[in-house]
């Protein structure tokens, strides 16, 4: 079996994050955020979508930027959904 096997669920080594929520909450564009971190704006998109896991150094810089603990931004488990539950 290859490392690129099809998968419909979250990857076991995926790092979940709240970057998009924090960025939108503070009304910061992807480009502004990327410039502040010294990364390409597309990297921010990859991070937000969980397509890329940051290095420890980048994760710490992101937490420092938002002035929150790193575990507030990143988790190995999915974060609970915020907001009203959909009605059935």
Q: Please tell me how large the radius of gyration is.
A: 14 Å
Order of helices and strands: EHHHHHE
Name the CATH architecture of the domain at 16-75.
Orthogonal Bundle
Task: Based on Cα principal axes, name the global outline.
Answer: globular
Q: How is the biggest beta sheet arranged?
A: 2 strands, antiparallel
As a percent range, the share of helical residues equals 40-55%
| Category by helix and strand content | mainly alpha
* CATH C-level category of the domain at 16-75: Mainly Alpha
Spatial separation of the terminal alpha carbons: 40 Å
Descriptive report:
With 88 residues, this protein is mainly α. It has a domain at 16-75: 434 Repressor (Amino-terminal Domain) (Orthogonal Bundle), CATH 1.10.260. It has helices at residues 19-25, 30-37, 41-48, 56-66, 70-73, and strands spanning 16-17, 74-75. It has a two-stranded antiparallel sheet with strand order 1-2. Helix 2 (30-37) packs across helix 3 (41-48). The model is unreliable at 1-7 (pLDDT under 50). It comes from Microcella putealis. Residues 19-73 form the HTH cro/C1-type domain. This is DNA-binding XRE family transcriptional regulator. One of its GO terms (molecular function) is DNA binding.
């Amino acid at each position: 079996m290859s490392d690129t096997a099809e998968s419909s669920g979250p990857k076991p080594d995926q790092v979940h994050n709240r970057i998009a929520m924090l960025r939108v909450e503070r009304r910061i564009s992807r480009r502004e955020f990327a410039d502040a971190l010294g990364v390409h704006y597309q990297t921010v998109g990859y991070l937000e979508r969980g397509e890329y896991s940051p290095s420890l150094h980048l994760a710490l810089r992101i937490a420092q930027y938002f002035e929150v603990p790193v575990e507030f931004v990143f988790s190995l488990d999915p974060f609970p959904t915020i907001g009203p539950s959909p009605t059935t």
